[in-house]
Amino acid sequence: MGFAFYAIELLTYVFVLLMGVVLLVAGVLFAIDRRQTKDAIRRNYPVIGRFRHIFSELGEFFRQYFFAMDREELPFNRAQREWVGRASEGAGNTIAFGSTRNITVPGTPIFVNAPFPKLDADFAKSAPLEIGPTARVPYHAPSIFNISGMSYGALSKPAVQALSRGAAEAGVWLNTGEGGVSPFHLEGGCDIVFQIGTAKYGVRASEGGISDDKLSAVAAHEQVRMFEIKLSQGAKPGKGGILPAAKVNAEIAAIRGIREGEASISPNRHPEIGSWDELLDMIAHVREVTGKPVGIKTVVGGEAVMREMFMNIASRSADAPDFITIDGGEGGTGAAPMPLMDLVGMSVREALPMVCDLRDEYGLRDRVRLIASGKLVNPGDVAWALAAGADFITSARGFMFSLGCIQALKCNKNTCPTGITTHDPRFQKGLVVTEKYKRVARYAREIIHEVEVIAHSVGVAEPRQIRRRHVRIMQEGGHSRPMNELMPSYSAVAQS
């Protein structure tokens, strides 16, 4: 009895003490909230007004896990992310009971199944496709699906290492992004596309512009197969790259040639490129110095400007870009102003068929390869892009999901919980390269395999034989129309 009495007395004492601490903290917060002038809610409703901010911060996470349906979220919904997750794990990607996708939504592509699809004996693999036939060292690219530009700096060291090793394992290329080539891009042994951004990181001369010596040094790496001059990217057309100061450590500063601890802001465009002729001069110069294929990456703003580009290319065919990467306005990045991310640049769904037709109209089909980029992460996206006219497809965020990205939307804050877009060792330790590179390779292989499944279903032997006639696009009212009627290819129009 005595022990119980003392226990109750002790618990009562602890409770009173805790209540005192709580009241003291509440009193301090009350005084702070009443005196501060920045937040009207906290000033009018001291202490309890703080919960509004807490709930707002937590809201996006609760919606993702408890409230959003499989197909509701943006930029990528749960169904898309889980497909990548299963593919990366090597798990079966079959589903049961029926699709959760609402196929009556206007714009939805529906592939036209053949009455007599291909048998196993008729299947073929997509052969390597040559890029840069006039370069001293053309590139015979082996894969239709590859890794889009992601810089070391925007991504962590272990993330780049895993991508490099996974790309080599799967036989796909890895684009460096505009941050220059790092030892971690090279260490896996994969094919590399070196991106030249507006700040010329990795190849910049001390006085600005491109250093031919640095270009030659990069090209001397056998793994570096091509060079891509970035004019713009989907998430921020008209705005250069943004790497927050918190991410600029000594190693990244050395690779980029910038100051440690200062934000890395690229110019809005290449200062020396103010016209199509100057762009073609730059392409010709980089190709001459490196001996390797050179292309451009751009976001499409309209048909008139792209027609002007192809007119100039046709008049200087010797200086033509070896490839053009079309990034849709829905493309992503770790940091971009919201107006540019939301409102500027055509979608790849509209831009790709248009650019393909212009290229063919000017007789450049076999000279200029098209690469599609921008939110193409699942097999249906890739198959659609091939039907629309792409020769290759690249993805960045799809491969981030394969690394374990949970769409926490913290890419610009150096607090990525999965270690992919942070340089904080606390978070990076969660990304184990020896495990994650296998996921990268499995994802690439599974995408290609399932695009082959779609190709065989529509009656062709391999993915690059998919045409616009094999796709129907859903319209208002629940009726679909053939893609080749909505967007007739230039060859079909020319023959009519």
TrEMBL record:
Keyword Ribosomal protein: no
Keyword set includes Transmembrane helix: yes
Alphabetical GO biological process terms: glutamate biosynthetic process
Domain (Glutamate synthase) ranges: 141-460
Membrane-crossing segments per the record: 12-32
GO MF, any single term: glutamate synthase activity
Keywords of this entry: Membrane, Transmembrane, Transmembrane helix
Family recorded in the similarity comment: Belongs to the glutamate synthase family.
Protein name: FMN-binding glutamate synthase family protein
Organism, scientific name: Tritonibacter aquimaris
Native organism taxonomy: Bacteria, Pseudomonadati, Pseudomonadota, Alphaproteobacteria, Rhodobacterales
